[in-house]
Amino acid sequence: MPVDLLAIAAHRDDAELTCAGTLLKAVDAGYATGILDLTAGEGGTRGSASLRGEEAARAAAILGVADRRNAGLPDAHLQNTDEFRRIVVAEIRHFRPQVVILPFPVGRHPDHRLASELGRDACFLAGLARYDAPGEPWRPRKILYALAYREDAVKPTFVVDISAQFERKMQAIRCYASQFDGAKNAGEIFPTGQDLYSLVETQNAHYGSLIRRRFGEPFFTHETVAVDDVIALGVQSM
Questions:
Q1: What is the reported pLDDT for 201?
Q2: Alpha carbon distances (Å) from 210 to 20, 214, 218, 236
Q3: CB–CB of 187/14 below 8 Å?
Q4: pLDDT tens-digit map of 182-235
């Protein structure tokens, strides 16, 4: 089944940390969503690939995604090669998304940076009729980059209000007990002395405050956002 919104992530749990609230909000609005994990997380320090697969399935049920798949690429060894692009192109043609969420192109984990580059290139190549990969040609309409936990000087293009979805987002994150129970940091999240679950709440509360809401998830787009009604613009200035 084609999905409206697809999150492409390097590892199982990345989508939960960065954009689970947005996926939940889309489902609440009646859209179909999906997650493509590029690796099984077999290179992680904690847990195992099989355990993370079980955790990902439980999280997907909470998030209500229509489909969650794994591309089977090597953890900690992602590359933007022709071989890997063909695999990701086939997955994009399977999901046929309108909008794709990718990791931000800068990150301390090389898999995150390469997942962004690989995902972007595959989104374009998937639309080429003569590109040699399984599936019918399909090109997503829009690419969004998840900005969560970034320390770079990049201001979000927009922030999604996930106040109504935040508790379910945390439920999905807590499915990854093998990764997060007792943890102080993960992926792009630097330690502050808080446990990871408290740190996620602090970060999401910060993003929410940018739009005068309780919790939010930030995104960046290269394109300028169009506004039809300036009178209806949100976020109070004064």
A1: 97
A2: 19, 9, 9, 10
A3: yes
A4: 888 888 888 899 999 999 999 999 999 999 999 999 999 999 999 999 999 999
**CA-CA-CA-CA torsion for 31, 220, 164, 36, nearest 10 degrees?**
50
Q: Are 11 and 44 in contact (CB under 8 A)?
A: yes
The confidence score (pLDDT) of residue 43 equals 76
Q: Cβ of 150: how many Cβ atoms within 10 Å?
A: 17
Cα–Cα nearest to 119, from 154, 74, 89, 156: 89
Backbone phi, then psi, for 216, in 5-degree steps? -155, 160
The span from the first CA to the last CA of the chain, in angstroms, equals 45
Residue 80 CB neighbour total at 10 angstroms: 17
Provide the residue ranges of all domains of the chain, joining segments of one domain with +: 5-232
Q: How far is CA 223 from CA 18, 86, 132, 149, 218, in A?
A: 21, 26, 29, 22, 15
Q: What pLDDT sits at residue 197? A: 95
Thinking of the domain 5-232, which architecture would CATH place it in?
3-Layer(aba) Sandwich (3.40)
C-beta separation of 104 from 19 below 8 A: no
Which among 109, 89, 98 has a CA at the least distance from the CA of 45?
Answer: 109
Interstrand relation of 33-39 and 67-73 (parallel, antiparallel or unpaired): parallel
d(Cα 88, Cα 85) in Å, to the nearest integer?
5
Per-residue tokens: 68: 């969650």
Strands (E) located in the chain: 5-9, 33-39, 67-73, 99-103, 142-146, 158-161, 216-220
